[in-house]
Amino acid sequence: MYSCGLSADKALAASKKCTLKRSVNADSVLALLTNHGFSKTQIRELITRDPDILLRRVEKNLQPKIQFLVDFGLSATQFGELIVSKPYILKLGLRNKLVPTFNFLKELLHTNEKVIRAIRSCPWFIDHNFEKNVIPNISFLQKQRIPICHISKFFMHEPRRFMVKVDRFSEVVTKVKELGFDSCSPSMFIEAISAVALSQSTWEAKSMVYRSFGWSEKDVLSAFRKRPKCMLMSEEKIGRFMDFFLNKLGLKPSHISYRPNLLFYSLEQRIIPRCTVLQILASNSLIGKDLTLRQLQQIVQMGERQFLEIYVIKHQNEAPEVLKAYQGQISFSKLDIKA
């Protein structure tokens, strides 16, 4: 077969997946992709992912679908990236799948960028019967007085949550309300939906990680009610955060369960560099060694410019290494925090 710009190995692998009966058809497909702004790199990647595309009829199959997506308003860059990452899209029917799905997404999400983000998050949604579950589930949330702007944002990030059966979706929302969440705080309410929708085994696995660091079941529920997102963190991430706070800062488990917001700042880019700066300042007696938990929380939450001015720039002459510490060039060892 034509190599189509592929390496010999990739061309051979692709040839095993499809046999070109007519090179003219392959040439037409390549010309179509090129005319719609696909780079040579994108064409190579697309053929590697989906060699069968070279067998599809251009005028009756590919051209109408591609034209619809272009007319829909996708830029050449958006279009190329979407198709290369999700070639499955061009296998779907135009009138019965692509047109209704993209129109529905555009109406709900408003911008092409958000439509693409939703599709990348959950590509199989395009082939889903959204009238069966998605639309009723959206309507159900609206009946709970969740503003459509919050529903749209939720959908963009987690469209799969709306694809469950209506009964299951209703059950999750009811459980969220029983746990004390109020739709008057829509962001928290939606966070709670995502967490409660986890499988029992996933919830238990994450709870076990917290409990392994000394939390009780009551602590888990307390932190969850304050920030439901704490149950959406990966088990590995939970472990890294808890290990740092307990073993490096000497905090107690209850200190974190009472302040779960501390779990949602970047450990590597914010918390550790700032604690390293504080460690150096304390060792040079430039700040008091009895740093309280409340002060730590304020310092972690502090804006970037304010932290730089107060703790880095102000002390740079007396302790030049604070800049390196802030840039992550000095390893953190330990910092004692008083409750």
UniProtKB/TrEMBL annotation:
**Protein name (database record):** Uncharacterized protein
Q: Which organism is it from?
A: Persea americana (Avocado)
Q: Which domain of life is it from?
A: Eukaryota
